[in-house]
């Protein structure tokens, strides 16, 4: 068995990544991740016995104003993508789908991880690049 060592420099110079690397160097960015996984709530509308997050469920969530503020902060720090995920079902958060739509309108790529039981609206689906 051989171990292949990844060449980080080669990876960063791939044609599809090169514009982002050049932008990073030009701006000398030192803050703001590229992608954020955001857990708006731990509430879930299921109680699956095999759930790995069962001990986290229904412990609360992010307040509406804070969630909206986070979307603005992510935009201001040039975050490129937000994945709405969680220990529970993100669509149970009382402010949904507004944060998804707001992120999309600000030009942030949006992903949504859902159990699929709360059908997202067509607008939410159109605002999300990925739905898992």
From TrEMBL:
Q: Which GO terms describe its molecular function?
A: catalytic activity; iron-sulfur cluster binding; metal ion binding
| InterPro entries documented for this protein | Aldolase_TIM, Radical_SAM_PqqE_MftC-like, rSAM, rSAM_sf
Under the heading Pfam families, the entry gives:
Radical_SAM
- Specify whether Iron is a keyword of the entry: yes
Q: Which SUPFAM superfamilies match?
A: Radical SAM enzymes (SSF102114)
Positions in coiled-coil regions: none
Claim: S-adenosyl-L-methionine is one of the keywords in the record: yes
Question: Where does the Radical SAM core domain lie?
Answer: 40-123
Q: Which keywords are on file for this protein?
A: Iron, Iron-sulfur, Metal-binding, S-adenosyl-L-methionine
Q: What is this protein called?
A: Radical SAM domain protein
